[in-house]
Design a protein that fits this description.
Layout: E1 2-4, E2 11-12, E3 37-39, E4 55-59, H1 60-65, H2 76-79, E5 85-88, E6 91-94, E7 101-104, E8 107-108, E9 127-133, E10 148-153, E11 162-170, E12 175-184, E13 188-199, E14 215-229, E15 232-246, H3 251-255, E16 261-278, E17 281-297, E18 305-325, E19 329-350, E20 357-380, E21 383-395, E22 399-413, E23 418-429, H4 438-446, E24 450-452, E25 457-470, E26 473-492, E27 499-517, E28 525-547, E29 556-558, E30 565-575, E31 579-588, E32 605-617, E33 620-627, E34 635-637, E35 646-647, E36 652-662
Parallel strand pairs: 7-10
Antiparallel strand pairs: 1-2, 1-3, 4-9, 5-6, 7-8, 9-10, 11-12, 11-36, 12-13, 13-14, 14-15, 15-16, 16-17, 17-18, 18-19, 19-20, 20-21, 21-22, 22-23, 23-25, 24-28, 25-26, 26-27, 27-28, 28-29, 28-30, 30-31, 31-32, 32-33, 33-36, 34-35
Length: about 675
């Protein structure tokens, strides 16, 4: 930050700005020339000397240059840059858990369902910055805590009546297109986008062949920002998604003409009023609405059972947060809550000669309220302590209360500027509203299953980490250990494709994470590396949801998405003559082998992605991208979700044209 004022010489200090931090700067101005100007420049986070949360920030430029990261259905911006994040059976996992929180401008999007959706929450092309937190959370976050993805959307303040048109075409007849436009005045800014995508390859296939695997989708996003005056800002963000998937077949299902499909819809609207009472005292009021639907329609000729499962969820609520910043304190107090309405219908038709046919519709409601309090106390210039708590009440099929204390510390080692951090805390994750009763319960009983009411997952986590800055490089090492009671997972009823959530009595998730980020090398680009050594183990019997009441296995067992070693190494570089290139090498040691009677993993695997582009005119950029360049096909996992087994993605090559225009 550079400060200039009439009659004084300029004064410059470096400052790191991140959510949850409140850096205090002191400028001593010397007599100098007459001028007055303040310039603030942003960049990727290197070291935050006050934060106890391991955090990764991914910028819009990194999303644009990383191979495959800007596709509508892609989560590559997360898996490439966040250690311990991977895709298994078409679901994102972080540190071995399904339940992650998506937030927009720091306001969490409510969702209590477990692994019922495949499609993404937000199109990556609509993201300005993505802040990913993994553990060590502020008390402002409470639910779905295996990862928090805070999206800072594009606003239009970076535009002046400007727009972009993206168009891609590639293998599997894929296309991924978007048009966006934004602009601003002194007080008002807007951004709007519309996108569409389709491909003959959508979900991970149950075999090496790509059969019946089409995906098509539509989406859009809009943001409005109005700065009424220096003390009041109004923000509105909305996002819409429609994604339809064919469920891929193996050779036998293709020969039988099976045509299962999954149809998903998602809509989010969030409004925020940010009011500054005085410097350092800020109030944010954010009402929100979230609609989510996932409909699975099985082919009537499915054997042995044709399945239909439709679920829609509506959430409406608000977050209120008051923050106060002084020279030594950064305190926050707030409330978060929502009401939920679920409508779920299930239909089963047996094609095995048993004559079974049932249809059932269930409506469930629930609500959650939470209050949180936290203070970040800067004891010394090199020592920051954090303490807080979160009180939660949930009411649905059952009612629960939870108190979640959290404490942490960050120590900046003088002269070296290394930052050592530590955290201990507890989390509560509210259960889904799904339940089994009536004819569906009778069928479950006939399959040797019963249903126990779901209770919330309760987690206890401790972790410590060290961040080392060296000549612009940043090395981050983190160790975490999380124990869970009533660990959330999911299971099917018999031979059907009806999946319901369940809880396992206990789980432990632990490991090491390493991140290396370079500075701008020769002012051209950067290299990065993320590595995770992780374990995801379950223990005990099924404590909630569908269960056959079998006695618990002795000791710990591998969860189906356990992978010990995960590595990503990549680069993004601007080249001479307005060209650029990006690449990523991925290695995974193999997920749990579900066919083995003992603890075992599938084979290790490697994939490489590459992209290159060039600005061929002032407003036109062309690029070509290859995903899984060597076309290595291998068994990725053999869990039960959507087909039973899943092979790695085939090679995909596509070209993209990006055209910038002015109105």
């Amino acid at each position: 930050m550079t400060v200039r004022k009439d009659g004084f010489a300029p004064s410059v200090q470096e400052v790191i700005i991140a959510s949850g931090s409140a850096p205090v700067l002191h400028f001593q101005l010397k007599i100098g020339a007459r001028a007055e100007k303040v310039t603030v420049s942003d960049g990727a986070l290197t070291v935050n000397p006050e934060q106890m949360t391991p955090t990764t920030i991914v910028s819009r430029s990194e999303i644009a240059m990383t191979p495959g990261a800007d596709l509508s259905n892609s989560l590559t911006a997360i898996t490439n840059y966040v250690p311990g994040a991977w895709m298994a059976h078409d679901q994102l996992h972080v540190r071995g858990g399904h339940q992650v929180t998506w937030a927009i401008d720091g306001v969490p999007i409510p969702n209590t369902n477990i692994a019922s959706n495949i499609g993404p929450q937000i199109d990556p092309k609509d993201i300005d910055y993505l802040e990913v937190q993994r553990g060590g959370y502020s008390s402002a976050y409470g639910d779905r805590t295996y990862g928090v993805f805070n999206v800072v959307p594009r606003t239009g303040f970076e535009r002046n009546n400007e727009g972009e048109l993206f168009s891609t075409f590639g293998t599997f007849h894929q296309t991924n297109d978007q048009i966006n436009f934004g602009s601003h005045t002194e007080k008002f800014a807007y951004f709007a986008s519309v996108n569409g995508n389709r491909s003959d390859y959508g979900l991970e296939t149950p075999g090496p062949d790509v059969l019946h695997d089409r995906v098509w989708g539509l989406g859009g996003m809009g943001t409005l920002v109005y700065n009424r005056d220096a003390n009041n800002q109004f923000r509105f963000v909305t996002s819409l998604r429609r994604d339809d998937y064919q469920i891929p077949n193996d050779q036998d299902a293709a020969a039988a003409g099976i045509r299962d499909v999954e149809r998903e819809r998602d809509a989010v609207a969030s409004f925020s009023w940010v009011h500054t009472f005085q410097p350092g005292l800020l109030l944010t009021i954010s009402p929100f609405y979230h609609y989510n639907r996932a409909n699975y329609d099985g082919d009537p000729n499915d054997t042995p059972i044709s399945t239909t499962q439709h679920r829609s969820s509506e959430y409406a609520g608000a977050q209120l947060a008051l923050s106060a910043v002084t020279k030594q304190h950064n305190a926050s107090l707030g409330m978060y809550g929502f009401g939920q309405h679920d409508d779920e219908s299930v239909g089963l038709i047996a094609n095995d000669g048993s004559g079974l046919r049932l249809a059932q519709n269930q409506i469930a409601t629930g609500h959650l309220e939470a209050v949180f309090l936290e203070d970040q106390y800067k004891v010394l210039p090199w020592l920051t302590l954090t303490a807080g708590g979160r009180l939660t009440h949930f009411s649905g099929a059952i009612s629960e209360n939870a108190a979640s204390p959290r404490v942490g510390a960050a120590v900046r080692i003088p002269r070296l500027n290394w930052v050592l951090r530590g955290f201990w805390g507890e989390y509560y994750q509210a259960p889904p509203l799904s339940t089994v009763s009536g004819p569906l319960l009778e069928y479950a009983v006939s399959q040797g299953l019963g249903f126990i009411s779901l209770r919330g997952e309760r987690d206890q986590e401790h972790q410590f980490g060290l961040t080392i800055p060296l000549r612009g490089w940043a090395l981050d090492v983190n160790n975490y250990h999380q124990r869970a009671r009533n660990y959330f997972d999911h299971n099917a009823i018999g031979d059907s494709n009806v999946f319901f959530p369940l809880t396992i009595a206990g789980a432990r998730l632990y490991g090491w994470e390493v991140t290396i980020r370079s500075p701008r090398i020769a002012r051209r680009g950067e290299v990065y590396l993320t590595y995770a050594y992780a374990h995801a183990d379950g223990a005990g019997t099924i404590s909630g949801g569908l269960t056959d009441f079998s006695p618990p296995a002795s000791g710990y067992f591998l969860l189906d998405h356990d992978q010990t070693h995960t590595l990503h190494a990549g680069f993004n570089f601007s080249l001479p003559r307005r060209a650029y290139a990006g690449g990523n090498l991925y290695y995974g040691s193999g997920f749990t082998d579900g066919s083995s009677n003992g603890p075992a993993h599938l084979q290790g695997h490697t994939a490489f992605d590459l992209s290159a582009g060039k600005a061929v005119a002032e407003n036109l950029t062309l690029s070509v991208t290859a995903l899984n360049l060597t076309n290595r096909r291998f068994l990725l996992d053999n869990s039960q979700t959507f087909g039973g087994t899943h092979y790695a993605e085939p090679r995909q090559i596509y070209v993209q044209a990006r055209y910038r225009f002015h109105r």
